[in-house]
Amino acid sequence: MKSGGIGEILFLCHRIPFPPDRGDKIRSHNLLRKLCEIAPVHVGCFADDARDMSFATELGDISASQKIIPRNNSRVLAGLKGLANGQPMLVALFDHPVMHNWVREILAARPISAVVAYSAQMAHFVPVLEEGKRFVMDFVDLDSAKYTAYGEGQGGPLGWINRREGRVLLDFEKAVAVRANVSTFVSEAEASLFRAVSGLSTGKVRALENGVALDYFSPDAQFERLSPEERGTGPLLVFTGQMDYRPNIEAVDSFARISMPAIRDAHPDARFAIVGRSPTAAVEALASLPGVTVTGAVADVRGWLAAADVVVAPLRIARGIQNKVLEAMAMGRPVVASAQASEGIDVQWDRHLLVASNAGQEAALVLKLLADKQLSADLGKAARARMVERYDWSATLAGVPALIGG
User: Fold this and answer.
1) Within 13 Å and on the Cβ side, how many CA atoms surround 264?
2) Do 26 and 166 have their domain in common?
3) Fewest Cβ atoms nearer than 10 Å: which of 6, 42, 141, 228?
4) Do 140 and 56 sit in the same domain of this protein?
């Protein structure tokens, strides 16, 4: 044991927490490293593809043991299974008998004192625990609210599916939270929302905020800068994110089609770079619009962030704390974000970042920054200072030992 009274830890997460290069993996990776400071950690997780599986060695270097299962469940089949079993589709999509068996074996064979489940779809792998073992449920975001938002005003079968998922998933989340010793969310706003819909107390539902790797995401760090050809000569606006994720897709579509024409009226050479892996066909099609570039996966996002005149985060549906916003601010870049993308981040609007209520205002605020270099520089400097002051991972995860120890 590394800490008095704490045995070993079982950590369950829906994607292998390596490498920390997308939102869900960034949090799970840093949480895992914090848990490893407390006690030996056994990790059960899924791999989306061969690239995920290739990081098994890195995971093995820090875990006491591991179980990585390739995930190939069909969304259609998972949806049908969920309907048949009364499960949320999200849970059915990650169900696997091998993971259930492995969890039971680890609990029987090892002196596990705490089980940490990361994201709602891993909660169903946690059985009823023996007295004295703690169950910490890190929901991260209130996923049911996201599906409810998808379904609002949406007609046809897809609208029905999303509304049904929102209802069933919320019931599941509430049942899990009742069973867990404590449930955590990425921001106090998310935690407060869940307390309101579940009726649970602050002792049962708490905030566990995201952080940012300040040495890595730093304007002074060593990284490859964009070439002059990549950078171009005009104003560069950048969005970063996983580009097969619906909120990101909708965000860049809106900015490219509505905000960019207004910006290019004033700056005909302005470019909008959509930076992130797995762009869908709809995202790739945006590259046909004037001034829009779709990069796909890049080796190091910091080069694009450092080159950006403005980083934009025009999300309309957003839960919790957006890593993309923290990273841009840590790089000292001026950020224009929607209210949804900035919600939950402990900053002052107009001092640390600019916040827009619609696509037209996003364009206006970008143009304001492009016209006032001093304002842009001051905003970036204040953004970096706020990240250093408030969002170092060591500070945001400082309460984890108490959650594990009870």
Assistant:
1) 16
2) yes
3) 228
4) yes
For the segment 217-229, what is each residue's pLDDT rounded down to a tens digit? 999 999 999 999 9
One-letter amino acid for residue 205 of the chain: V
321 and 334 belong to one structural domain: yes
Q: What is the CATH number of the domain that holds 48?
A: 3.40.50.2000
Pair (14, 91) in one structural domain: yes
Q: Quick check: helix, strand or coil at residue 260?
A: helix
Give DSSP secondary structure letters for 121-162: GGGGG--PPPTT-EEEEEEES-HHHHHHHHHTT--HHHHHHH
CA dist 107 and 53 (Å) reads 24
Phi and psi, residue 397, nearest 5°: -100, 10
Domains in the chain, number = 2
Res. 307: pLDDT tops 90 = yes
Same-domain check for residues 33 and 141: yes
Spell out the long-range contacts of 349-355 with Cβ–Cβ below 8 A and sequence spacing 24 or more.
351/379, 351/382, 352/379, 352/382, 352/383, 352/386, 353/325, 353/329, 353/379, 353/383, 354/379
* Tens digits of residue pLDDT in 345-380: 999 999 999 999 999 999 999 999 999 999 999 999
- Residue 221 within a domain: no
Q: What angle do CA 405, 34, 324 make, to 5 degrees?
A: 125
Which backbone phi and psi does 313 adopt, to 5 degrees?
-140, 75
Measured CA to CA, the distance from residue 288 to residue 331 in angstroms comes to: 29
Rounded Cα distance, 389 and 383, in Å: 10
